[in-house]
Amino acid sequence: MGDARTPVRRRRLVPWAVVGLWLAALVLVGPLAGEFGEVQQNRAVDYLPDSADSTQVARIQDRLPGGESTDLVLVYHRDGGLSAADRETAAAQVAEIEGAYELTDTPRGVPSADGSTLMYPVSSTQPGQDEEARDAFVDGVRGIADGAGGLSVEVGGPGALGTDMGKVFETIDGTLLFATLGVVTVLLVLIYRSPFLWLVPLTVAGVATAVAMAAGYGLHELFDVTVTGQSGGIMTVLVLGAGTDYALLLVSRYREELRRHERPYDAMSAALRGCGPAILASSGTVAAGLLCLLAADLNSSSGMGPVGMIGVLAALAAMTTLLPAVLVLLGRRVFWPLVPAFGSAPKVRRSLFAAMGASAARRPAAVLAGGGLLLGALALGTLNLTGDLKQEDSFTDRPESISAMRTLAEEYSERSSRPLTVMAPTDRADAVLAEARATEGIADATAGRSGGGWTQISVFTTAAPETAGETRTVTTLRDALDDHGAYVGGLSAQRLDLADSESRDRKVIVPLVLAAVFVILMVLLRSLVAPLLLLAAVVAVWGAALGIGGLVFEPLLGFAGTDPGLGLLSFVFLVALGVDYGIFLLHRMREESLNGAEPETAALTALRTTGGVIASAGVVLAATFAVLTTLPLVPLVELGFVIAVGVLLDTFLVRTYLVTTASVLLRRRLWWPGRLSRAPEPVPRDRQPEPV
Predict the structure, then answer these.
(1) Is 612 exposed, middle or buried (0-12, 13-18, 19+ CB in 10 A)?
(2) HEC states along 570-585?
(3) What is the pLDDT of residues 30-42, one digit of tens each?
(4) How confident is the model at residue 394 (pLDDT cuts 50, 70, 90)?
(5) Helix, strand or coil for residue 281?
(6) Cα-Cα-Cα-Cα dihedral sign, residues 626, 631, 637, 639
(7) How many CA within 13 A on the CB side of residue 197?
(8) Lesser CB count within 10 Å: N end or C end of the chain?
(9) Residues paired with residue 520 on neighbouring β-strands, in sequence order
(10) pTM (2 decimals)?
(11) How far apart are CA 62 and CA 303, in angstroms?
């Protein structure tokens, strides 16, 4: 932004021009930000890869007469057995539903073996692909299907599950935004100890969030990028969390420079020169890591990459242009009551991080070995992570559709109540139907709608949904029907395709993320050893955080499984975000080394000067991701927990002790093969020659 010779007129105009440009941009993109929630797609098929069988089934269904069908199951249940009056009530309600809506077939009741339950499959193409029409249909059916006097009536099935899931995602954006803003506000007030200063970065973060939402909407409209409720929520957390981190680093350096420069403009210029490269590299690692998700097979993961990247870049742009401009215009008084006066010295306090660094430096090898063993022991908790999370276990509060699903699983144990959907070429439909009925593990198969050269076949397995037995049946059925050109889909097949794609994506994306982050660190730090140290540290943190999750999810929280995407997404975020703090620390360490400090002094000085801001940034980022644990979806709770725990481990153990002690032990070798590694080591005082 200039130096001490910058004309006074320019010092006054530049900040106002920056603020004016941001206000103009906000006015232009503000209406688009409101559309961001409207383009989110939360059907299960929206998460699937294009090549999956279940994706092909969903697309063919859309082309059948009437379009996509909304399939429900009405479940009538009474402990001890249904009475004749109960059956009459069920028949009357189903008839009323048939009269109120256009159904594909007349529903027929299927009694359970013990006579306590009666289920009626109900299907309609009337809502089509319109989610509002689907929700209205489901709510209308629920309004008609009503029990009394001990008769339980539940509406389940894929359509009801989609409605319940949609209602959850509708609340996520608002709940997440306000909860995150509340958490960040409290933390900023405590960190800055000022009644005014916290408002500035928070307001700028709000502007960045609006811009990111508008850009996310533009990505969807221009490039057909998949935007889900999950990626939209995480983008909000990234903007507020990462943006606040950048603000903390910049404001901390700005406060230092205000004591050295008389004019706020010049102090901000020096602050940007000092910490700008670290902030730029930090955001670059996050953006690069997220962009690697474009290689994912899953639509939801590949869409999260550019959506998350947009959030990080919006935070970077706002915190390096708008925030400095506003702070310069407000002047020193924004720090009241702790105003940093020109020429003053900062209040000398006992530095916790200086004490921690000194204690680590006394026995660096022992501290490094102990910390490594601790992380390794925590990582063993991953052995306690249970299998893939079933759809019925994905909610922290069980909605009606899940309750209906469980009732059906208990009362119809001899066959699955959730059909697989097979799409067969019409000219081979009879052969496919016969092949399906002859396949081991199939209880029944019936032909349904036809059109456009395709026929829909509903196939019921003998195994319960999302069990090992059903998975084997799906695989066997796909192999048997492969020669007929048929596709096997449905909810259970979708879950299987999701798990398979997640497994493939981990093998592809993990190396890509490591390579991308390594290149950025190598360019910033001019070293090969330092980037390897940081990457080893964040990978160890990822393993330990997952291990802690394994010790908490089922034993303490009662979760009945782990989301298949947890490993990949937590890796991407923890590596990309965790490296941030290493960048802040090692960049300052390199700065001190270039100024002539010997290796141990450079490491401890960097820790003392950046430890407080890194700790503050880590707490803020962990708290923003911890907000995800308040949502009613188990996958988001698990993801938020692992990232929050990983960030705290990285902040208070890895950066403070392990990276610092490793730097002390490596000395100049940390910067190999850069020129710093070839600089002569200072001679210790006790080994210097006596003066003549």
Answers:
(1) middle
(2) HHHHHHHHHHHHHHHH
(3) 889 888 888 887 7
(4) confident
(5) helix
(6) negative
(7) 27
(8) C
(9) none
(10) 0.83
(11) 22
